[in-house]
């Protein structure tokens, strides 16, 4: 009786999605849309209420880098930053390859964008400055 129940449970867990045909194209009725990583807001206040919302300063090393809406190469580009541009590093991706940044306008780089002082709790950045994700290798940390 127990083995019959186990076999039924295993068969019920099988995937019922249509299989591709021999040519490798999706079976009729299957959709072939590309996955999109969506948007991952940059979190500020990661170090707690006693520290600045974005505690690390940084500067762009590469000639230009795209600022993406999520920490993935496939994510949409929200803007670009040029070499030497100062920014605030607020968080990192789990794999440490991407930095969540907030970039003040080039005309007023001393503007804190609301991240130079502490915030009450961790949250997504919703201020006026450009924010998003950049490759960690393209940024050099610096003292603020």
Topology:
Layout: H1 2-12, E1 43-44, E2 56-60, E3 64-68, E4 77-82, E5 86-92, E6 98-103, E7 123-124, E8 130-135, E9 139-142
Antiparallel strand pairs: 1-7, 2-5, 2-9, 3-4, 5-6, 6-8
What can you tell me about this protein's structure?
With 144 residues, the chain is mainly β. It is 8% helix and 30% strand. It has 1 helix and 9 strands, in the order H-E-E-E-E-E-E-E-E-E. The strands form 3 sheets. The chain has a 5-stranded antiparallel sheet, with no helix packed on it. It has a two-stranded antiparallel ribbon with strand order 1-7. It is globular. About 3% of the residues have low confidence.
Question: Which terms summarize this structure?
Answer:
two-stranded antiparallel sheet, 144 residues, five-stranded antiparallel sheet, mainly beta, single chain
Helices and strands: which structural class? mainly beta
Helix tally?
1
Number of extended strands? 9
Mean pLDDT: 82
Please bin the fraction of helical residues.
under 10%
Distance linking N and C termini? 69 Å
Low-confidence stretches: 19-23
Please state how the strands of the largest beta sheet are arranged side by side.
Answer: 8-6-5-2-9
What portion of the residues fall into strands of 2 or more residues?
25-35%
List the secondary-structure elements in sequence, H or E. HEEEEEEEEE
Q: What is the radius of gyration computed over CA atoms, rounded to a whole number of angstroms?
A: 22 Å
Shape: globular
Largest sheet: 5 strands, antiparallel
